[in-house]
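Lab notebook, bench 4. We co-purified these components, and the gel suggests they stay together. Before we commit to crystallization screens, I want a quick structural picture of the whole thing.
Request: model the full complex, all chains together.
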Amino acid sequence: MWQDLQHCLFDAPFTVIAVAEEGRGAEQARPWIEQARPSYPCLIDSDHRLSALYGMVNVPQCAWIDERGMIVRPPETAGSTDHFRRIDPATRTLAPDLARARLVARAAYIQAVRDWVRTGRHALPQDAVRARLPRITADMALADAHFRLALHLRRHGDAAEAATHFATASRLHPESWSIFRDAQELEPSGLAGGPAFWERVHALGDRPYYPPPEL
Amino acid sequence: MATVLSDTGTHAVPTSGGLMLTPEDVARVTGWTLKPEGMCRDELCVPLADSMQRDGRIDVAGFWRHLGRPVVHDRAGEAWVLGDGPDERQAALEGLQAPDFALPDLDGRIHRLSDYRGQKVFLTTWASW
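Here is the predicted assembly.
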């Protein structure tokens, strides 16, 4: 998705930086990166460091950063939508009209990024950036510490104790889908999309899984 | 020996009875240095209570909690995380300077956000899960 964006802005002082929040490390991300053959940096964040620094809670989320290194759009959903919640569970497909709507929404977001790069449009004034920043609480900071410990323990073969710290992290920071999902056992597909995930999604009710960005 | 994970990386340190480290190890693991005025990092110095020092070692966990930052460890006391404080993280975000980071690509080459100063950056996350 982002390669097209990078490609069409090849002549601009612009780069995508894609960061894989992969608690299981680079080898989980490798097949995807090698298939995409991106021309922009694809980095591996096995401790979810970026999520902690920027207060991100899901993937894909993004931040827009200008030439001076200033945030001009704080973390928001990066082009994804909640249409996946209406996937037919029997066929695991999306109805054509919903699939189209999802593509339209994604294209609109990519166009917004292009407009920003070319004209500066959609960059927010500083007070608006501050108003939209995540609020980092003590519980969130403690959750990140437990999560980092859990990842370390899992890497070193202590799945049982890792599980207790994953659970604590998720309890302290229930809004973080990244913490919840990277703690899960993976399905054969490689996704953390088992019954526990869907139960949590259903529990959202009318609340969005991917809050739409305000463009 | 214990493993300590902090914002400076992952470190193996000799310790016993909690996280009591030599000043040299504290500096290596945390970036904080013991000076006459206390523990110092960059422009900030924080007095170090006598209760946080014993036999030439520093109670790093106690100091970290004194800073209002999270400390967690495994049951055996062999793996510790010295976490980032919420106030510092919030202040960093509200300054609107995008927090810098250093992460590897698939070849292990480290990229910093600051390497891309002078360009607009669309910083996005993803995951295989």
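Chain B has a mean pLDDT of 95. Worth comparing against the SEC data before the next meeting. Helices of chain B lie at 23-30, 60-66, 86-94.
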